[in-house]
Amino acid sequence: MEKTAETTKSESPYVPGVTKRKTVQLGHNQLKLEKILLICVFLIIPLTSLILFTYVPLFDMVRYSMYHYNGYADPEPVFVANGADKLFKDNYYLVFKNPDYWKPLQVSGVYLIGSFVQIAIALYFATIFYFRPKGAGFFKAVIFIPSLLNGVAISLMFLLIFKNDSSSQGVLNSWIIASGGQPVSWFNGFWRANLVLAFISVWRYLGNNMVMFAGTMESVSKDEIEASEIDGAGKWQQFLHILLPDIKDIVFLNLILAVNGAVQVFEIPYVMQPSNPYTKTFIMKTMEIAFNQNQIGLAAALGIVMLLIVSVIALFQKAFEKKTGAN
Amino acid sequence: MEKTAAVATEKKPNEFLETVKAYGSVIWGKFKKHWENNRHPEEDKIEYKKTPVQQVLNVLMYISLVIAALLVILPIYIVFVASLKTNQEIFSSNALLFTSGTWSNYADAWNFNAKMTSNPSTMGTAFSWTILISVFSIALTIMSGSFVAYVLSRFSFHGKSVLKALFLIASIVPSVTMQVSLYGLMAKMNLIDKPIALVLLYSGTDIISIYIFLQFMDNLPRDLDEAALVDGCNSFQVFFKIIFPLMKPAISTVVIIKGIGFYNDFYIPSLYMKNHFTVSTYLNSMNQSFGTTWGVICAAVIIAILPTIVIFCLLQNQIYSGLTSGAVKS
User: Fold this and answer.
1) I need a labelling partner for B80 at 20 to 30 A (CA). Which of A299, B33, B150, B201 fits?
2) With a CB-CB cutoff of 8 Å, which residues 66-125 of chain A face chain B?
3) Which of B156, B309, B327 is the closest to A17 by Cβ?
4) Which residues form the domain of B134?
5) Is the pLDDT at A87 greater than 80, yes or no?
């Protein structure tokens, strides 16, 4: 008995439709019925919500994106009735023709630069913590804490610091004035405004990356490091030749996923600068078109563009994981 | 809260500062002890003698650590200082120095909406909604996540690969843009402005917890199932009596990751629950209301981030490892 179980286990994956492992023990039909019952009972809720909250809206979004659909109160566009002549012509054409709609992707570019800087700094601190200097636990905790904090709270925190009203200057400007300078309007101009927001984003997420890298570095053998230390290798050499090769996969993965993060920025600019034209992100624009201007068809087209970007990234990610043999 | 405010305002400025300092040193002592207890044994390893160059690099390394720590602490500290000031003091005095100090901002922040608008919710109500919604969402997430993981990890059936692909594709789809069509769907189901909508969306679109459970379950030896089956358990009993109780580490990871995520989420409640506030939307409403003083906003910010910081200090190691395991697939 024991042996049968053992062999079926070592015979890798479960071949679909084959249940020989259990037929040994009990009546075949009884087990099969029980199995079907369990699968149905266990999957009914998750599968219903998966279809309802992911696939139905996905299908709807594709459908909406092809038609003029102005407001949820309007009758819904139907695939056949409206005819295919509008297909792609209006919404998608507009998305690519009107810079108003794709310009927000330039904002994502600034955040992308921010995330590359963030990954570099995270790598630096993760390496430092690998060597466990005195107080490592404290510094690691402090640098990590922002990634747990409420995003709206963070936005308000930095609004107080970067504020620039004629009546009341924020902390940074009042320091600049006190030292004899002119107050800076931090959210004026494309580069300045978005660099400030990208800085806040780095402030928030740096610790997250750092802990992830540090966690991966933990698996690097300490013996190897100690051996190299006796051989006289410096920290930089140890990083380059021992640590980096072991974590380069996760670093690269994070660089790929940074694109996803950059195109999906929403919370901080929305709370801090809800109506600033310079800092409008792609999501903010999409939401504005959908919920303020009621152009749902157009917003859905923008959503599909976003979906395409993210899908390309996902394909890259999968290809990369396959290549490196990561799960 | 009211009580503290009353006591604090009666005291003279100096005494107030002394109290803050005294409490501060007690709390600091506790944290320090905590961090020392959590030190890695490797930290005490023998130090090799350092060359002068290495010593300089060491100093530079510490300088960079201190700068990073200051950059993190400074904004939080400034907001804390501002939360104890009147609006006029915030914009006229040094942002780093305490003034006479008043806790009344905290009372105002707690009761903000009751005072400023007709909406009777206090920050207490916002916390209650947030906790209630998070608890139900987490319970549902754990339930459906572990169910799916059990089926995928222990059974073979027709269409299993299709099912896996469905979940995989769903993990790619960006939920932020999906709201364009999801909102229409929720409106059709008459779920807008109902707290249950948040519970359904949080638990219904979560894929990460399935991966966490699946990873964990694949590492549980199948011999356990076999033994239980031989002993006469049916597959349901195997799950509820054997597998589920063994999944505590994975469950606590999901509770931590999801709990923090739901507590901090702003996007979903701002779209689907405009009639009640969660902590995030409460904070945002303060910023948008005309004439809110910054002292009150800062007090609310401190109230909102305090629970997270306390939980982090208590569960530091679980949070670090939970983050690393949750990050494998995300």
Assistant:
1) B33
2) 72, 76, 124-125
3) B156
4) 123-281+309-327
5) no
Residues B141 and B274 in one domain: yes
Asked if the C-beta of B241 comes within 8 angstroms of chain A's C-beta atoms, the answer is: no
**Residue from A111, A252, A141, A21 nearest B222 by CA:** A21
Cβ neighbours of residue B252 under 8 Å, at least 6 residues apart? B318, B322
Which of A16, A64, A150 is opposite residue B305, by nearest beta carbon? A150
Pick the residue of B150, B154, B167, B181 with the most A CBs within 10 A to test the interface with A by mutation: B181
Residue A2 falls within a domain, yes or no?
A: no
Lowest mean pLDDT among A135-149, A228-242, A303-317, B123-137: A228-242
Range of the domain at A184: 97-324
| pLDDT for res A4 | 42
Inter-chain residue contact B156 with A215, CB threshold 8 Å: no
Establish if A138 belongs to a structural domain: yes
Q: Are residues B158 and B249 in the same domain?
A: yes
**CATH number of the domain encompassing residue B314:** 1.10.3720.10
Residues of A whose CB is below 8 A from B222: 5, 9
d(CA B36, CA A39): 48
CATH number at residue A123: 1.10.3720.10
Locate B82 and state its tokens.
């501002």
Asked if residue A20 has pLDDT above 50, the reply is no
Could you tell me if A44 lies within 8 Å of chain B, comparing CB atoms? no
Q: How many domains does chain B have?
A: 2
Task: Tell me which of A176-190, B36-50, B213-227 is least confident.
Answer: B36-50
Question: Could you report the predicted ipTM of this complex, rounded to two decimals?
Answer: 0.82
Residue B297, domain member (yes or no): no
- The C-alpha of A108 sits at a distance from chain B's nearest C-alpha, in angstroms, of 15
Can you give the pLDDT at residue B140?
A: 95
**Is the pLDDT at A174 greater than 80, yes or no?**
yes
Closest by CA position to A140, among listed B88, B72, B80, B37? B72
CB B112 within 8 A of CB B123: yes
**Is residue B300 assigned to a domain?**
no
Q: Tell me phi and psi for residue A295, to 5 degrees.
A: -95, 75
Confidence of residue B38 (pLDDT cuts 50, 70, 90): low
Give residue B153's identity as a one-letter amino acid code: S
Is residue B289 situated within a structural domain? Answer: no
In a domain, A19, yes or no: no
Total structural domains within chain A: 1
Using CA atoms, how far apart are residues A131 and A225, in angstroms rounded to an integer?
Answer: 9
Max mean pLDDT among A237-246, A254-263, B28-37, B283-292 falls in A254-263
